[in-house]
Structure formats: C-alpha cells, structure tokens
Amino acid sequence: MPFLPGFDARWKNVPDYILGITKDIWEDRGIHTLHQYYGPELVVRSPASVIKGNTGIIAATEATLAEFPDRQLLGEDVIWGATGDDSFLSSHRLYCTATHDGPGVYGAPTGRKLAYRILADCWCRDNGVYDEWLVRDQGAIVRQMGLDVVDWTRELIAREGGPDVCVKPLTPATDMPGPYKGTGNDNPWGQALADILTQIAKAEFSVIPQSYDRAAELAYPGHVLGAGWSDADQFWMQLHAAFPNAQFSIDHQIGMEEPLCGARAAVRWSLHGTHSGWGMFGAPTGVEVFIMGITHAEFGRHGLRREWTLIDETAIWKQILLATGNL
Question: Which of 48, 226, 252, 266 would staple 218 via disulfide (CB 3.0–4.6 Å)?
C-alpha cells in the first residue's frame, strides 16, 4: 500500500521517498532512474542556472559523478507539507562528502576531501519530482579545493565560452514557470521563521537576541559554523549590508512538528536589488543582483536553536563580474 496514491509501494513515507530516490540516483548509480523519478518537463532552478527537462539534468549528474565518484549525500532532514491532489512539497537538507578524483569544472584531480550542504525544495506527485529549487554551497566547494571564489568564478565564465554565451545565473529574467504555484502551509513554525527573516531584512537585527537561543547552532554558506547571537548577527548583517535597498521576499514557507523531531521550518526566500553597500561582496558595484536562499530551522524552549542557511556565493559573483566586465 503506497503512502500516497500514485507513489510506489516501496516508499514508506515522504522522507523515505525523497532520501531514497536521492540514494538511487547518486550513490547507487541509477542515473537512468531520472527518467522515472523526474518529470519530463521538470524545471530545476539553482542560483547558478535554470535547467528544463531530463537531458540536461542527466548530463550534469554524470559530470558530477565523474569528478567526484565517491560522493555521498547524507539526508539530515526532510521538512514537508501536503499540497493537495495527492502531492507534496518537501524541503530536504543533505550533508555531502566527496573526493575530487576526476577532471571537471574544478580542474585536474587533486584528491581533496570535501564536505558541504545542499538545501532543496521538490514538488512531487505520481512517484516523481515535477518542480525543484536547489541551493548548493558552491562557496564551500571552491574554498575546500584551495581556490579563490572570485577567481574561480571568473575562470568559469571563460571556460563556458565568455560572457556572451556562458551559463546565466537564476534571475527573474532567466527563471521558467513550473506547475507548482503554492506558497507553503500555515503552520505557525513556518510563519515564525518567515517573520524572523523578514524582520532581519528590515534591519530589525534586535530580533536575533529576541528570537534565537543564546547558544543557537548555526551553519552558513562556505561551510561556516557558528554559535549564538553574535555569529547570526554577523552573517545576516554582512549579507544585507551589501544590498541595503534590495527587496526581500518570502517565496515559500513550511512548518511541521513530528514525534522525536521537535518543531522545524523551511523557508525559501529571495533578495533582489542593487549591490550598493559594503558587506559580504566587497566594494559596492551598483550591479543588479538576484539571490535565492533557503533556510532551515529548529525551535526549542528558548527560541530558534539551530539554523542552516545557504546561498550560492559564486552565482552572485558571476552576476557582478558579468555586469561590471571585470573578467
């Protein structure tokens, strides 16, 4: 008996399905199962690109496994909500390990060991994924390869054929519509996280000591780990200071509670505006930038006790470099 009509009886529940197909595709080398698990017109949006259809996804999967053949994707959490008509939206968090043992976009094999996270929202029905938003911690990968993020991004543009033909990052202009039109559920924990992020975006940084546990565990882009109010303040201040007049939007929010798991939330958000301030991305350039971010959080007796936030620094630098011509 399937956990939801249209899904294979093999899967016990939503987390089992999401983490199971991930293992099938990547670790068990079932790349061909993408034809089964991914809808033929699936749109996968990452900050670095927008891909539609299985052909590009299969090619990208093969290239990644050729470069990192021992890659593991360890499922830390799946936060999800029903979306009607026997469908659901899941937001899963992966802790990835890999060894750079093959040639690829990071150059000749180095044998370097990597660890980084991925956060991804997937809309699923009929035993397949039909819409996806994914943020990979590219900054962590590049730095652990011993490379400079800006220099690597500049070289990537050249490898892709130069500014006119290179792969363009996700922006409202490059995005493609997909079948999922929802904005999440009305669970109070999803709303709590959305409210915190919105207040921070409005420069109400006092919300951090008001809403975070004083000993909150934090995981930020670049595989940076932190703890407590000061580290949370520093990350969010550095980001918003770089784009002080940007429009912040909550694009999707889910909250849920489960036995033995506590209260959790997943929020996908965006920041769209001009790089007009000093902060995370150096001297202001006046470039229009679009950022897609995903945040996961756990709540406890003293507020937000764990946070995981990802943006793709390389996609932001790519927008800046392409617009300024600093290549």
Answer: 226
Other CB atoms within a 10 A radius of the CB of residue 191 amount to 17
75, 93 contact by CB (below 8 A): yes
pLDDT, average across residues 178-187 = 96
Residue 14's nearest CA partner among 77, 84, 78 is 78
- What is the tens place of the pLDDT at every residue in 271-285? 999 999 999 999 999
Instruction: Give dist(CA 267, CA 196) in Å, integer.
Output: 11
Contact predicate 99/111, CB 8 Å: yes
Cα torsion 286, 238, 138, 39 to 10°: value is: -80
Tell me the residue length of the chain.
327
pLDDT of residue 148: 97
- Longest CA–CA separation in the chain, Å: 58
Domain annotation for the chain: domains and CATH numbers: 14-159 (3.10.450.50), 188-324 (3.10.450.50)
Taking Cα atoms as reference points, which of 294, 90, 120, 311 lies closest to residue 193? 294
Phi, psi (rounded to 5 degrees) for 155: -70, -35
Match 């965006």 to its residue by tokens.
270
Nearest to 240 by CA among 211, 278, 196: 278
